[in-house]
Amino acid sequence: MSATPKIEPIGAKVPEPRQNDPDTLARQIVEKLTYSICKHPEQARKYDWLRAVTLVVRDRIIDHWFPSTDRVRDSGDKRVYYLSMEFLIGRMLRDAINNLQLTGPIREALKRYNVELDMVELLEPDAALGNGGLGRLAACFMESMASTGVPGVGYGIRYVHGFFRQEIAEGAQVELPETWLVHGNPWEFERRDSSYEIGFGGKVLTQQEPGKPPRHVWRPAERVLAVAFDTPIVGWRGSQVNTLRLWSAQAVDPILLDAFNSGDHIGALVESNKAEAITRVLYPADSHQAGQELRLRQEYFFSAASLQDIIRRHLGENDSLDNLADKVAIQLNDTHPAVSVAELMRLLVDVHGYEWAKAWEITRATFGYTNHTLLPEALEHWPINLFERLLPRQMQIIYQINADVIREASQTGFDGAQISAISLIDEGNGRRVRMGQLAFVGSHAVNGVSALHTELMKETVFRNLHELYPERIQNKTNGVTPRRWLMECNPGLTGLLTEAIGPGFLDDIEKLRDADGLADDAAFREKFAAVKRANKGRLADLISDRLAITIDPGAIFDIQVKRIHEYKRQFLNIIEAIALYNQIRAHPEKDWTPRVKIFAGKAAPSYVQAKEIIHLANDVARVVNSDPSVRDLLKIVFIPNYNVSLAEIIMPAADLSEQISTAGLEASGTGNMKFALNGALTIGTLDGANVEMLEHLGEDNIFIFGLTADEVAQRRREAHSGRSIIDETPLLREALDAISAGVFAPESPARYHSLVSNLYNNDWWMICADFEAYWNTQRELDGLFLTQDAWQSKAVHNTARMGWFSSDRSIREYAKDIWQAGPGKVR
Ligand SMILES: *Cc1c(COP(=O)(O)O)cnc(C)c1O
Questions:
Q1: From atom 6 of ligand 1, which residue's Cα is the shortest distance away?
Q2: Which domain holds residue 495?
């Protein structure tokens, strides 16, 4: 065979740099319309323009993608692999255009054809491959890895149907399928050459040669193909482009031709349907467990495919797997990919012939694990018999890891109770594999996502493992990317800040501090308030268009948007709204501050109480909004279908951010960060990252109320209930009485009986316990809003002091303390 001639890719370097002026861009957009979409520009529809612009931008990303990939390969630098079941990305075009600095020229180019860039960007469907905070964190981290120069690859699942679309009918949530791929997805590249067979079931053969340890060979009964789809993730200023590789499941044999030919047309496709089911839908479960066989299949499927891919790449560049941990860091985003620990052990021992102890050393040095919740029902555990049936060899490996860990614990002097607490097998309710324990023991670093959450992890879920491995747990407080959550969603504020402090903060967000002194500058405060006012106008228009509710941009926009969950306490907020409604009617003479309470969020379809809370919010909204006696002093709005794109309109428009979870329950929160960065004041509990926000913002600039995590734990030990508090608090009692009497649901007065009786009987989420403190803090905020100078000054301090909560800072900490990877290894 003759040597392959060297072929240079076309693009930014050779033969000539790509031009980014409006003329060139305009010409290229028309070229794409013509030759890639085959439309005459005069007949182009909206979606054709979206596709053409995307393709023009994509070419420029590819120009950066090749050199980024080459650079990492040639340097031999350590790569970071971020394994996550969820990536809640949202739209990609605006992010890419912004990060490539093309916003101005593309807007200009499109104007020549009378096309608005904003209109085009809004056509793109959200990539909603996640439920909430955990998935959005993974998306922010991907963008920040590219922006800070960490060579990162994200691995996840290419769900055909992402997070369900929510509609509200008669006040209740209705779930509809989400279809982000119907117009095709120009961002992804299918890589048929990167596909792997993934096994399930079958049996394990043991080969015993004299004088040697036994060798195990797994013979799966079923095989499914994992096919890679790559999406480029472009960092700030295009300096680096990383890859998000999502796996799609396909049958090894797409059609059983024998069956088809013999007339069984449906049966011929059964295998194919069964395989494809694995990546068909995202489980709509947030902070609670989705215990289904299909879920375990999804978890193993993407973990096993990713590990095969990582090993193949490593062996293409290295002689053996001995140095795997020097070249590879794998981060497990929650326990969903925790089976990777057992799978890597299987690959090292069974396939690559490593002895157990060496394999364990490599495995542990390679993995890091991020915990996201302390809720016991959210810590995954699989019934042993299910696990064994699907993954027989991995089950054996888990038993062996467990035996090693238990031996180590016994030698350390652990007693029986301590040992059963650290065991990877829960011997209680029907024997289960504990995925949190597996992830913990298989990782060299385990992290929580805020300072408080990390401390609570040490005291609660992982108390005994922390005793056995006291160096292993560390904290990495979450962050959000300032590109999406300031520059792109709030161009008005970004422009104002650039004018006031220069553009330095665009490259180093902590420079926002330079704006701190402007809180005392009346002229600046006025401009800051004007930007907020315009953003509120934009949200008011959206609410008017979608819901036909008129709201006054002069009122306090008091906003709670996040997954609906009892611990997040939307119910507390609704009760306060009802109490306020009662008070406004009882005391019309008082000087009430006009308020609009805005809610959005989805409930897991099987989570009855969460759905009741949505229903209640909508019922209360209907009654309050149509009551002329409240005039315009109180409006309540539930905006359906909360997603990333809606968040991008909501965050810049908030005056007040509701972060009111029961203390000790919210691991970090990131919504809290997005709001404050955009100049909203926070009313919140001492929970998650609110605690650190208090430290950075100062106590004058955040409104903290309620029980602390310790006090909540204490009350729960004392079997606290709400009854006596309700009896002694007329505001609360009258609000609950109104709910119970059917004031908000006359057609079905008993609808909320169980929600209310839970408060009387145990008040598990401390809604009664915190009500009065919450009410008083809200009234304090009412007063503050009337003094606009004071309010706006605090709002400016919020924006100026939130730079630390950037995911760039989080990623630099992971890179330095956990991955030992990234620019200069440590920064
Ligand atoms: C940021 C974000 C979340 C997380 O919100 P929390 O308030 O931290 O729970 C959830 N969903 C979407 C769409 C988000 O953008």
A1: 671
A2: 482-709+723-736+773-808
pLDDT for the residue 396: 98
pLDDT tens column, 662-674: 999 999 999 999 9
| Higher-scoring residue by pLDDT: 266, 163 | 163
Segment 327-355 shows an average pLDDT of: 97
CATH number for the domain including 656? 3.40.50.2000
Structure tokens that stand for 809 in this block: 């800072």
> Contact at 8 Å (CB) between 689 and 673?
yes
pLDDT tens-digit readout, 432-483: 999 999 999 999 999 999 999 999 999 999 999 999 999 999 999 999 999 9
CB 94 within 8 A of CB 134: no
**Catalytic residue list:** 372, 562-563, 568, 670, 674
Whether the predicted pLDDT of 584 surpasses 60:
yes
Distance of alpha carbon 678 from alpha carbon 656, whole angstroms: 11
Q: What are phi and psi of 42, to 5 degrees?
A: -75, -20
How much is the average pLDDT of 765-785? 98
Pocket test for ligand 1, best of 91, 143, 561, 598 (most atoms within 8 A of CB): 561
pLDDT of residue 9: 66
pLDDT over threshold 80, residue 809: yes
For residue 698, pLDDT over 80 is answered with yes
Which one, of 116, 97, 1, 99, lies nearest residue 56 by Cα?
97
Rounded Cα–Cα distance for residues 27 and 34 (Å): 11
> Does a structural domain hold residue 504?
yes
Ligand 1 atom, smallest distance to 670 CA: 8
Question: Which ligand 1 atom sits nearest the alpha carbon of residue 601?
Answer: 11
Q: Which atom of ligand 1 is nearest to the CA of 668?
A: 8
Index of the ligand 1 atom closest to the CA of residue 90: 13
Q: Is 50 exceeded by the pLDDT of residue 779?
A: yes
Query: Does residue 421 sit within a domain?
Result: no
DSSP, collapsed to helix, strand or coil, labels residue 602 as coil
> Of all protein residues, whose CA lies closest to atom 10 belonging to ligand 1?
132
Does residue 693 lie within any of the structural domains?
A: yes
Mean pLDDT to the nearest integer, 527-543: 98
Does residue 664 contact residue 769 with C-beta atoms inside 8 Å? no
Residue with more model confidence, 728 or 269: 728
The Cα 283–Cα 247 span in angstroms is 16
In a domain, 212, yes or no: no
**Which pLDDT score, from 0 to 100, does residue 826 have?**
37
Q: Which residues line ligand 1 (CB under 6 A)?
A: 132-133, 136, 562-563, 642-644, 647, 669-671, 674
| Ligand 1 center to 482 CA (angstroms) | 15
Going from the Cα of 132 to the center of ligand 1, the distance in angstroms, rounded, reads 5
User: Which amino acid belongs to residue 34?
Assistant: T
Distance between start and end Cα atoms, the chain: 47
CA dist list (Å): 547 to 210, 550, 629: 76, 9, 21
Residue to mutate, 89, 95, 129, 136, ligand 1, most ligand atoms under 8 Å from C-beta: 136
User: Please, are residues 328 and 83 in contact by the beta-carbon 8 Å criterion?
Assistant: no
Give the separation between CA 602 and CA 604, rounded to whole angstroms.
7
Within the chain, what is the greatest distance between any pair of CA atoms? 94
Inter-residue long-range contacts of 248-255, CB under 8 Å, 24+ positions, other chains counted: 248/158, 248/279, 249/198, 249/224, 249/225, 249/275, 249/276, 249/277, 249/278, 249/279, 249/301, 250/195, 250/224, 250/225, 250/275, 250/276, 251/224, 251/225, 251/275, 251/276, 252/197, 252/223, 252/224, 252/225
Question: Does the pLDDT at position 5 exceed 80?
Answer: no
Q: What percent of the chain has pLDDT over 70?
A: 98
Distance CA 57, CA 48 (A): 14
Structural domains counted in the chain: 1
State the pLDDT at residue 15: 47
Kindly give the pairing relationship between strand 595-600 and strand 681-684. unpaired
Residue 230's CB: how many other CB atoms inside 10 A?
17
